[in-house]
Design brief:
The chain is of the alpha/beta class. It has two domains: about 210 residues, 2-enoyl-CoA Hydratase, Chain A, domain 1, CATH 3.90.226; about 50 residues. The strands form three sheets. A six-stranded mixed β-sheet has the order 1-2-3-7-9-12, with helices on both faces. A hairpin with a 2-residue loop joins strand 1 and strand 2. The longest helix has 16 residues. Belongs to the enoyl-CoA hydratase/isomerase family. InterPro entries: ClpP/crotonase-like_dom_sf (IPR029045), Enoyl-CoA_hydra/iso (IPR001753). This is Enoyl-CoA hydratase/isomerase family protein. Pfam families: ECH_1.
């Protein structure tokens, strides 16, 4: 994966860290990054050595500030633009989310931790909308500038409405660039699960990822898929696929791995939060 130009990819045993790496533009994504993120998600699907993923941004100023809107960056100066309207009617649109979202676009069901290291705004929500949970540096902020610049926030607000109370996503979406949600407020409403000093963010994310990755792969992925089903389906529809998920998430290897922990007689060291 060394071919990436806009990402840093690192492996730490069973954990992969994917770092958005365009710090000169606050890790905003251009078409190269969009395609590289998608390629990374697809390759991680097939990499059985990796059980858990940490997603973060370069530097300490921004996780990601969405789409880099310079013409060259998004392909608008090309006769075949890759984002926006395709063809002569508005019925065919290409959106960044067609490549960026790990679950919707890449069918990736390995746990992803979002480590938010600064500003997260606009198109960053394509990514954060589909992580399992987030931890944030104390100085992290969340906002969506679309309305300030004359655009409705649609995909971003739809995705984050799955993670935030109605009033909160409305306020973030409608206040545009005029207000930012602090990491502390994000924690209060459940958007972020933990807030840590900036210098501890990466260490904490890796600690959580390594702990999760110490557990059987199929158990992790089956759990991720089942919880997301409850967000995507009506309650009784989700229950209807529960038996299938239980059975497909069982294997001799997974159960044996779990039994080794149980039969060792050693108590698992646990943390209280």
């Amino acid at each position: 994966m060394s071919r990436y130009q806009t990402l840093k990819y690192e492996e730490f045993g069973p954990v992969a860290r994917v770092t958005l790496h365009r710090p000169e533009v606050h890790n905003a994504f251009d078409m190269r990054m969009v395609k590289e993120v998608h390629a990374c998600w697809r390759e991680l699907r097939a990499n059985d050595d990796i059980r858990v993923i940490v997603l973060t941004g370069s530097g300490d100023k921004a996780f990601c500030t969405g789409l880099d809107r310079t013409a060259a960056a998004v392909g608008e100066d090309d006769r075949t633009p890759e984002l926006g309207q395709q063809g002569g009617t508005p019925m065919h649109q290409n959106e960044p989310g067609d490549w960026l979202m790990p679950k919707t676009s890449a069918d990736l069901w390995k746990p992803i931790i979002g480590a938010v290291n600064g500003m997260a705004c606009g198109g960053a929500f394509y990514l954060l909308g589909e992580v399992e949970f987030m931890i944030a540096a104390e100085h992290a902020t969340f906002f969506d500038p679309h309305t300030t610049y004359g655009m409705a926030t649609v995909y971003e607000s739809m995705m984050m409405a799955q993670r935030m109370p109605l009033g909160e996503i409305m306020r973030v979406s409608l206040m545009g660039s005029y207000e930012r949600m602090s990491a502390q407020r994000a924690h209060q409403i459940g958007l972020v699960q933990e807030v840590v000093p900036a210098e501890e963010l990466q260490e904490k994310a890796m600690e959580l990822a390594q702990t999760m990755a110490s557990q059987p792969t199929l158990a992790l992925q089956g759990t991720v898929r089942s919880v997301w089903y409850t967000r995507e389906l009506a309650y009784r529809q989700a229950l209807a696929v529960a038996d299938t998920l239980v059975q497909s998430s069982l294997s001799e290897e997974s159960l044996s791995e779990g039994q080794r922990v149980f039969k060792s007689g050693k108590r698992v060291d646990w943390n209280l939060r």
